[in-house]
Write a structure and sequence with these properties.
Layout lengths: L1 H15 L1 H21 L5 H29 L5 H27 L16 H25 L1 H5 L5
Amino acid sequence: MATIVGCVSGPVINRLGRMRTLVIAIVLMIVGFAGSAIFIKSGFGVLTFLACLFIAGVTAVYTPIYDAASDALPVEENGRGVGILDLMMNTSASIGVGVYSSLMASDTMGKGGLFGVGSGVEAQTSNMFWIMCAVSVLSMIVLFVFRKSFTAKRNV
């Protein structure tokens, strides 16, 4: 799924534009996380489908973000700016894994979940999905607050 989204992301962004592509990507992540949190007991097939939605959203984010970064910088600074963005994109995943794994190790996360999820590992996992969903919603809010930065084109 991610490979297909990655391969078609260029034409998609050309057709829909940066902002719509980013909104769709974030919605896919939100649906993937919230769905996984709600349907944590539904089995491997359902969770795999929801994971595919999330991964498609993550993959769809890359092209518009890099495109916006390229347009926001003067041509002579493009290489440096894209390099810094690449460093940030690759480092943020590692930081996220560190934060989420420390939360998963917390006993508090497993004491109970929402939507009928009892306690234990299912509650921990469900609660983590809710936190990741909340972060995605926050990302959507940040996107709308700074939308002009994502829609501006470089003055040549």
